[in-house]
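Reminder to self: tokens first, then the designed residues, so the page reads top to bottom the way the pipeline ran.
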């Protein structure tokens, strides 16, 4: 019985051992295998690569004359030229036509100028107030005459009205005696009363006359009054006529002022037109002089500086638009390397750059002398084709001791240390989620099968990084095992095993 019990225990232990071996084998298959590294001090090295082109250190450009036909380009690109050397021959027949056309244009402008000057002269005219002034003067004279007539008539009336005939003594009968009353009655009346007094209510009667002196006086007064009234009516009419003449004169004066103002505007407008034509003449004459100067130079466009002729900016037979540029490069060459936007600031003035020219396996060292903002431009390549340089930053440096050809392409590599740091980790161990950087470390934890390694997340602050490493600030210990590589995806809490 004891032997059976002992065998059972032995079998159980063997079974447990087999299960353990199987469990560990299964764990080794399912658990990720990782590589680790420890944090340490280090130096980061920034490496920048890119490409560039050999260009002239300086360039001279000159414009071709506008509106000229190119007969022949006398120099091939990449040819050394001297200042004053003929580069382009213009079509002389085409030039002669342009000169003739410009000369006719100037003559036409001169005629327009004379015509405009004549149009600006004032027209002969009678002032708007002339007739109104005559009418006003006549009205003044008639008014003065009417006033004088009225004054005279009024004076005559006053003179008669204030000087009646002398009065006679005696009583004036209520009714004058009949014409056939007899002489006795007359004698007794004369004896009793004498001459009739002027009572103002009736006229004295005289036997021997039919119209008394008083009646005559009354008739004269009435006639004088009627004359005065007629003179007053005439004066009033003349006052009305005079006022109308004044209104007509004021209206004519306003019309005259408006006419003078309009003439002044017209004169000013004409003056501006004359000045405009004169400006056009000056411009045409300046263009005419340019054409004659080209003709005097036999239609030859010469180099304005010595150097390497790059391009005339135009083809044979074309007519220039005035924007074409002759480009002459200096004989001193330099390398210009494009810097990618993400590498801006990684190359500093004075840094040494390894340059490998196209078609050469030997690298040469160039020192970055300056930096430029590069705009889009066309650079002549060795094959005469155009390659476009995109805008951005470029570094410039001169290559010593080599005969370089303009437009040669090259690749470059620049390295520089960015500083020393206390904690440097492999770049592959750095992770980031939701803007937070972290690393995974392998830490020993207790498990069912004993001690196992578990992935633990540790947050870090990235200070700098290069192509291989990253400088961080964190709570990572010097003996911590930082996971740098894994055979499968690993996240915090996963069991891992070390290689």
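Designed residues (499 positions):
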């Amino acid at each position: 019985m004891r032997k059976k019990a002992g065998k059972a225990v032995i079998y159980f232990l063997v079974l447990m051992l087999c299960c353990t071996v199987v469990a560990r084998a299964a764990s080794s298959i399912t658990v990720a295998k990782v590589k680790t590294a420890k944090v340490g001090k280090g130096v980061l090295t920034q490496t920048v690569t890119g490409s560039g082109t050999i260009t002239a250190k300086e360039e001279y450009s000159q414009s071709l004359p506008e509106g000229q036909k190119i007969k022949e380009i006398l120099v091939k690109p990449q040819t050394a030229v001297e200042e004053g050397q003929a580069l382009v021959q213009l079509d002389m027949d085409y030039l002669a036509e342009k000169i003739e056309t410009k000369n006719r244009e100037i003559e036409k402008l001169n005629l327009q100028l004379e015509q405009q000057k004549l149009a600006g002269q004032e027209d002969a005219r009678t002032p708007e107030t002339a007739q109104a002034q005559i009418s006003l003067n006549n009205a003044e004279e008639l008014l003065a005459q009417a006033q004088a007539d009225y004054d005279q008539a009024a004076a005559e009336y006053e003179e008669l009205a204030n000087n009646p005939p002398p009065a006679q003594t005696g009583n004036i009968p209520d009714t004058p005696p009949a014409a056939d009353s007899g002489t006795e009655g007359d004698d007794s009346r004369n004896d009793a009363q004498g001459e009739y007094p002027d009572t103002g209510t009736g006229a004295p009667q005289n036997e021997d006359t039919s119209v008394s002196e008083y009646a005559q006086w009354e008739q004269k007064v009435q006639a004088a009054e009627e004359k005065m009234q007629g003179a007053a009516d005439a004066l009033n009419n003349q006052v009305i006529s005079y006022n109308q003449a004044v209104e007509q004169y004021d209206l004519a004066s306003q019309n005259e002022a408006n006419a003078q103002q309009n003439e002044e505007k017209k004169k000013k407008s004409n003056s501006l037109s004359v000045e405009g034509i004169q400006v056009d003449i000056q411009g045409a004459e300046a263009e005419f002089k340019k054409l004659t100067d080209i003709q005097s130079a036999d239609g030859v466009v010469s180099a304005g500086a010595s150097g390497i002729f790059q391009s005339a900016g135009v083809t044979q037979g074309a007519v220039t638009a005035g924007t074409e540029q002759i480009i002459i490069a200096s004989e001193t060459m330099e390398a210009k390397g494009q810097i990618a936007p993400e590498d801006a600031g990684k190359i500093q003035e004075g840094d040494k750059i390894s340059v490998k020219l196209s078609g050469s396996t030997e690298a040469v060292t160039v020192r970055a002398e300056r930096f430029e903002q590069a705009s889009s431009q066309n650079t002549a390549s060795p094959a005469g084709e155009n390659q476009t340089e995109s805008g951005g930053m470029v570094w410039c440096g001169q290559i010593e001791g080599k005969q370089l050809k303009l437009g040669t392409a090259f690749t470059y590599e620049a390295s520089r240390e960015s500083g020393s740091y206390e904690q440097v980790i492999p770049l592959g161990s750095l992770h980031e989620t939701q803007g937070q950087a972290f690393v995974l470390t392998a830490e020993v934890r207790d498990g069912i099968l004993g001690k196992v390694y578990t992935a633990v997340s540790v947050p870090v602050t990235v200070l700098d990084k290069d192509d291989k490493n990253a400088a961080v600030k964190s709570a990572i210990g010097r003996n911590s095992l930082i996971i740098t590589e894994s055979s499968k995806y690993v996240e915090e809490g996963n069991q891992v095993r070390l290689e």
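The longest helix spans residues 213-296.
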